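User: Sequence in, structure out. Go.
Assistant: Echoing your sequence, followed by the structure tokens.
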Amino acid sequence: MYAVIRTYSGRDAKQLFDFLEEKKTDVEAALRKVVGLASYTLLPLGDGGISITVCTDKAGTDESMKVARDWIEKNATHIHPFPPVITEGPVIVQIN
């Protein structure tokens, strides 16, 4: 298993997460197409938010980042957040 965490903060990050919440059905549909997806979580914070993706391998998390980036570029062109801080690595323990 492999995980990637994208942390959004600063300019327009809260607006982005408000929009993602409005469009959560569309976001979910886009991410469900990622091969090897084990879980996807959006966690809003006061000034932005975090997305957490767990896939069976790094190729899946790479694909998830592309899908997320493309979705934002296509659907949230009116929002201009700073690029996310990306943290990624192999999963040691995952409890379902």
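User: And one key feature?
Assistant: Residues 8 and 84 are 5 Å apart (CA to CA).
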